[in-house]
Amino acid sequence: MVELTGRESVPRSMPPIPASAQLLAVAWLRWRIFVNGMFRKRPKGKRQIVGLVFATLLRLIVWPMLALIVVGPVAASGFFAWSAISQGHPQSLASLLLGIALLWQFVSINGLSIAATIPSFDPASLVRFPLGFGRYFVLRSLLGLMTPSTIVGCLALLAAALGIGVANASLALPALVVMAVYALMNIYLTRMIGAWMDRWLANRRFREIFSMLMALFAVGIQFINLRRGPLRAPGTRSSWLINILHSSGSYLYWLPSGFAAQAILLVKHPLAAVAQFAGLLASTVLFAAVFAVRLHKQFLGEHLSEGVSRRASVPPAPRKKAPAPQPAALSAPAVYGAILSPTVAACLRKEWLILSSNGTQLIGLLMPLMFVVIFSMNRAFSAFSSKYFLPAAIAYVLIAALSSLYNIFGVDGRGVQVYLLAPIRMLDVVLAKNLMSLALIVTQVGVAWTIICVLARAPVPASIQISTALWTVFVVAMNLAIGTLRSIQAPRHFVPGQGRQLRASPTNRTSALLVLALLFGSILLQIPVAIASGYFRLPWLAACVFGPLAVAAVFAYALMLRSAERLILANRDVFAEELCKA
Amino acid sequence: MTTPAIDTTALTRRFGDFTAVDSVNLRVEAGQFFGFLGPNGAGKSTTIKMLTGLLAPTSGSIRILGEDLQANSADIKRQIGVVPEGMALFGRLTADEYLRFVGRMYGLDRATTLNRTHELLEFMQLAGEQKKLIADFSHGMQKKLALAAAVIHGPKVLFLDEPFEGVDAVAAGTLKAMLLRMIARGATIFLTSHVLEIVERLCTHIAIIHRGQLVAQGSLDELRAGIWGIGKAGIQEGVVSLGEEKRSLEKRSLEQIFLEIVGTDREGNPAATAPEQELSWLS
Fold first, then answer.
1. Which of A211, A215, B115, B168 is most deeply packed, by most CB within 10 A?
2. Fold topology of B31-53+73-225+243-262
3. Is residue A451 assigned to a domain?
4. pLDDT-derived band of residue A179, with 50, 70 and 90 as boundaries?
5. B168-219 per-position pLDDT tens digit
6. Which of A180-194, A496-510, B181-195 has the lowest mean pLDDT?
7. Per-residue confidence (pLDDT) for residue A4, from 0 to 100
C-alpha cells in the first residue's frame, strides 16, 4: 500500500521541482490528450468495418484539403517575399507581414471561439499544481504552440525569410532573425488576445455578440468583394473601405510588420535597422507584458470567482406565493394550442422559447437571408443567372436550415428523459419538432423568395418558380424524413449557441459523411435536371421531375412518422448513452 | 504550543459588492479530522479555494503548516492535497495517464509515480479500467480518481470538497478507512460535506460558516455542549451559551446542532418556515 500520508513521508525542506519535469509532464499531457482524441475506442463487428471505410473516405477527402490550407499560405508567402525583393518593390514586404499576422490572428480567434465550446484541457487548471507564476507564464506561453494557426504562421514566416534570402543572399541572416522575433511577437499577440477572449467567451451573451460580429464581418467582406471584385457591375465605385486600405501603406511602418520589414530592408544602415528591430522587440515585450498581467489575475483565481460573483449579483428574492402560471403570455406559438394536441402545443412552445433565447441561432437564421440580399443587389450576379438565381439562392438558404433536421433531439440533452418518462406519445414530440423546423424553413424560403422577386433585375419565369417550389417540397420532405430517422438512430448532444456537438460516438462521426452526401445530393439534384431542361429546351421538365419526387417524399415522411414512436422506444438505450451521460 | 495545520486571520473575499467570506478566523490543529459545514452558498467552497491557493483573498492571511500561503504558494501546494469542487479532471486521459501526470507535476520521480499510480488504482478499484477515458467514467469513479490524485504525493493536509458525493457505499467505506489511516499517521483532513452523518462519524472538530461568517467552531463535544467558540483562540475568544437547559451534555446529533445554528437569521428568527400552506395538492 502506498504511503498515503504522514509528516514523515514528505521532508520539511524539499528540493525544488525541476522546471523541466513539469514542462515535460504538461507536454506529455497534451500528447496523450491528442492521441486519445485521435484513437478513441471503436465499435465492433460489422459497424467497425463500416466505420473504418467511412473514416478512411473522410480522411481521403479532408486531409488533402488540410494540406492545401497549410501549403497554400506558406508557398504564397515565400513567393511574395521573393517577388518583393527581386522585382524591386520591397515596400510591399510590410503588407505581406501584416497580411500574415492578420490571417494568423483571425484563424486563432476563430479557433478560440470553437475551443470555448468543447470540454477539453483547460490550461488555467494548472494553477492548482505547485508552480510559481514565472513557471506558469512559461507553461502558458508554450501551450498552444502546436495549434494549426501557429504552425502555419511560423512556416509562412520561415518561407518569407527563405524567399528574401533567395532573392538577396545578404538579407538571408537578418531576415531569419527578424522573422523569428516577428513570429514571437505574433505568438504573444495571439496569447494576449486569447487570454482576453477566454475571459469574455466564458459569458454566453458575449459569445452570441461575438458570433454576430463575426457574421457581420463575413457579410461585410462579401459585400466588399462583390462591390470591388471581378463580378462587380461596370461603373460601380470602389468601396470606401478598399480606398482606405489602399491609402494606409505609409501607416504600416508604425506597426510591428513595418518595423520587421524595415529592420530587414535597412540592413545597410545598421543604426536605422537596429532602431526598427528595437521597435519590433518593444512590441513583442508589450504584448507579452499585457498577456502576463491577465495571466497573473488568472493565477490569483480570477476565473474561479466568475460563478460566485454572478450568483452574488442576484439578491435572493423574498419568499412569496408564486403567481399562477399564465401560459397564454408565453409566446406567439401558444395560439397553436387551440388547434394542436396539448403535447404538440407544449413542445412547440418549448422549442420556441429555446430558439427565442438563443441569439446565435437567430443570427444563423438571418445570415443566409443577408447574403441573398447582397447577391440580389449585385447586378452582374442576378443578370448572369436570372434563370438559375432563384433555385440557387433557395438551395443556399436550405443548406443551413436542413442540416438541423438531422439531430432534432440534440439540443434537449438529458432533458430527453422527460419525454421518455412522461405519459405522452413520442410521435407528438417528433411532430412538434418537425413543425417548428418546417415553420422556420418556410419563413426563410418565403423571405428569400420575396427578396429575389423584388430585387432581381429580370422577372423569374413561372416554370422556374413552380419547379423550384416542387423541388423545395421534395428536398424538405425528404430531409425531414431521413433527418428524423437519423435523429432517432444516432442522436448526439448539442449545446445551442455553441454550434458544436459535445460528444461524438464513432458511429455518429462516420455516418456524418452519409448525411452530408444525402443533404448535398438532394440539393444538387437541381443541376442535372436544369442542364437537361436547357439542353432539350423543355422549361417544364424540372417541374415534371420534381412533382412526383415531391409527392413521393411527402409519402415517405408520412411513413416515417408512423414508425417514429416504435423506433424511439426501441432506441431508448442509444438516447441514454448519447444524450443523458454527463 | 504546536503549529496549527491551518490558521487564518480575518480571511475575507469579496466579489464586487458581495462578501462571500467575511473575516474568518479558522484554526485547525495538525492531525485533526476537521469538518467545515454550511448551507448552500455560505462560502465553504470559496474558503477552500483560498486555503488551497486557488483564489487570492481580498484581505486577511492564511498560514498552512506554519507558513504563509501567499508568500510560499508553490512550496505549500506540495504539502497539501485537494479534491476540488468539480474535481478538475482531464476527461481525455485515462486514469493511469492522469495519475502519472499529477505525480510528475508534484515532483515525484518516474519510478515512484508509477508505483503509486499502480497502487492507488488497485486500491480505488480502478485498475480494470485501463483504456477507458475519464470522461466515460461514472461520477463515483471520477470521485475516487480525484481522491487518488489528491494523495499521490503524500500530502500533510488534505482538503476534500464533498468527497463522498456519488460514491457507492462500498467505495465510501474504503475511502473512509483510508482517510482514518491518514489521520492515524498524522495527516490533517479538512472536509466539507452536506451529509452530516458522515461528518459526525469522521470528524473530531467542526466549524460552521453561514452567510460568509464563521458562526461556530470547536470540537464535536463542545458543540454538543452548546459552546460555539467563535473566533480565533487568543484573538477573539467568544463563548456563546445556549442557556442552562441546552448546555447539558445530552447526545444531540450534528444535524440538530447545525439546524440550531444556521436555522436562524441574523436577528435570531427562524430562517425558513415550513410552507405548510403550499403544495397542498400533493397526496
1. A211
2. Rossmann fold (3.40.50)
3. yes
4. very high
5. 888 888 888 889 999 999 899 999 988 888 888 899 999 999 989 998 888 8
6. A496-510
7. 44
Cβ-Cβ contacts under 8 Å for B127 (sequence gap 6 or more):
B118, B121
Regarding whether A293 and A172 lie in a shared domain, the answer is yes
Chain A residues with CB-CB distance to B131 below 8 A: 41
**pLDDT at residue B119 in the model:** 94
Q: What is the pLDDT of residue A242?
A: 52
Nearest residue in A to B72, CA atom: A132
Residue A541: Cβ within 10 Å count: 18
User: What band does A475 get if pLDDT is binned at 50, 70 and 90?
Assistant: very high
Q: Which of residues 20-49 of B touch A (CB under 8 A)?
A: 20, 30, 41, 46, 49
Q: How far apart are CA A491 and CA A512, in angstroms?
A: 11
**Is residue A131 less than 8 Å (CB to CB) from chain B?**
yes
A308 near B CB under 8 A: yes
Containing structural domain, residue A132: 21-31+64-229+251-305
Q: How many domains does chain A have?
A: 2
pLDDT at B242 over 80: no
Residues 132-171 of A with CB under 8 A from B: 132
Q: Rounded distance, CA B13 to CA A376, Å?
A: 58
B111 in Cβ contact with B104 (< 8 Å): no
Q: Does B90 touch chain A (CB under 8 A)?
A: yes
Domain boundaries, chain B: 31-53+73-225+243-262
Query: Is the ipTM value over 0.85, yes or no?
Result: no
Residue A205 and residue A273 in one domain: yes
What is the Cα–Cα distance from A197 to B172, expressed in whole angstroms? 41
What type of residue is A285? Answer: V
Residue B7's identity, in one-letter code, is D
Q: Are residues A391 and A506 in the same domain?
A: yes
Give the pairing type, strands B228-230 and B238-240. Answer: antiparallel
pLDDT given at position A329 = 44
Question: Taking CB atoms and an 8 Å limit, are A305 and B120 in contact across chains?
Answer: no
The verdict on residue A206 lying in a domain is: yes
How are the residues of chain B apportioned to helix, strand and coil, as percentages rounded to the nearest 5?
Answer: 35, 25, 40
Q: What type of residue sits at position A327?
A: P
